[in-house]
Structure to design on (65 residues):
């Protein structure tokens, strides 16, 4: 499962982030909300959740000579 960073900005302008593993966007959001609740970081009703999917894709290019 991909690693996802779920975050939101609170009313003071501070960004709170958690890492979760999820297959789908909404699954990541739900797991992120559960993690925030566990740490007592409840996003407000109008907060926007940002979900960043981290992948382990590596691409190589030849070095210039």
């Amino acid at each position: 499962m991909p690693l996802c960073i779920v975050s939101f900005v609170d009313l003071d302008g501070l960004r709170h982030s958690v890492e979760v593993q999820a297959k789908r966007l909404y699954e990541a959001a739900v797991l992120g909300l559960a993690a925030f609740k566990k740490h007592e970081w409840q996003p407000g009703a109008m907060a926007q959740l940002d979900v960043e999917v981290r992948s382990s894709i590596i691409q190589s290019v030849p070095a210039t000579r």
The chain has one domain: 3-54.
